[in-house]
Amino acid sequence: MEVLYSSTRNAENKVTASQAILKGLSEDGGLFVPDHIPELECPVHELAGKSYQDIAYEVMKLFLTDFTEDELKGCINRAYDSKFDTDVIAPITQAEGTYYLELFHGATIAFKDMALSILPHLMITAAKKNHVENEIVILTATSGDTGKAALAGFAGVEGTKIIVFYPKNGVSPIQEKQMVTQKEDNTFVVGVHGNFDDTQTGVKTLFNDRELEQEMTAAGMQFSSANSINIGRLVPQVVYYVYVYAKLLEEGKIADGEKINVVVPTGNFGNILAAFYAKNMGIPIGKLICASNENKVLYDFFVTGKYDRNREFVLTSSPSMDILISSNLERLIYRIAGNDTAKNAELMAALTKTGCYEISEQMRAQLADFYGGYADEEETAGRIRDMYENTGYVLDPHTAVASAVYQKYVTETKDETKTVIVATASPFKFTRNVMNAIDGKYDAMSDFELADELSKIGNIDVPRAIEEIRTAPVIHDNVCDKTEMKAAVKRFLGIVS
After folding, report:
1. Which residues pair with 139 in a beta bridge?
2. Exactly one of 14, 73, 112, 161 is catalytic; which is it?
3. Which of 105, 360, 372, 407 minimizes the number of CB atoms within 10 Å of its CB?
4. What is the pLDDT of residues 457-480, one digit of tens each?
């Protein structure tokens, strides 16, 4: 059955999957959502024993219905190949009775690789399907991981350029070095004086700038997005929730039909939304546990029903979660509003105007499957240390937040349901915070010395992604104010007013 996509703020204009991927964001500022969430065509036990690539096809074909089998399988096989350092793509590690789904074995050692390895192939295929002759300019804001993963995916891809904005002092040194050393002439990286929300808001403003759109059209270019607002990012993320259930079933860890809980360290809400979509496809997921750091806007939302970004922005050891405007939450709000675009648009307008909105009791009742929790910096560091001392397994700060929140959840609810914690980044991306959490004696070491020491104490190889940037020269030293982002874009694209 064909799946079409429409905006969360206006249901009238329906587009195909390929058109939604090309656009990235709807003209009215809304996010593209499927007209229905398809059910899996086969029982999940039939997926047990299948490869990640096979399961990816079984899931993605249901959402991306205007892609042919050959097109989709071609995209999948080019994406999930030797750039991952493990054949299984997403291995599962058991520690302290909980399953950690490791999504950091791709080229940039973070979960964003899972979707951004395939997005360039989906986008180029979509452009051909829709006879697009313009050059596609990928415009992206990053809180640390999306930027490098998108750069790695689009670098050197013919017919594209990619521009990445990041908060200048809001990412880890390793994350920044990964981005500013990116090669290929079609890449452009800019540090913004401000936080991630400033950066993300600036990018959304550029997408909605009709004057700039006209100038780009005249120059033979058009914007698209590699952020998680692009449905081409969200659909590939659904895959690994189906995969982890099938894998646990294959290994005899769970019985067919047995529910599992899922814990997701959450910033922009895309990753946990993908789990929600998987649940609605028929995967037996019980609780969706949304783990926040000290920027606990989502925790407060699930507890009170009020979303309020009017608060101090905290720089934490888990920078990919340092977000106060969780863009993908809009897709959930639209859903619990009964797919009411007018109601959703009203709430989003309130968020823009006042910085907050409150949902109705009827809407809150539909969030029963979600649980919000948060961990502060001390709890996060303590979780890294305790896990290492108890098991030898090393968590990055984002995964540690999720693990700490899960401990609180079990204490509070006594729920012993088997649980998957999504491990979203390699500890090597955050060596200083990880090593200081384990033992303060490491503080005097450089970031790369810390990587070598982490390799030694954790008995794990330094990832190729770290070795590649150890001595790489800085190529992108661009910095601008949040009010200068448009000028930076035009300068890179050679557009003169």
Report:
1. 163
2. 112
3. 360
4. 999 999 999 999 999 999 999 999
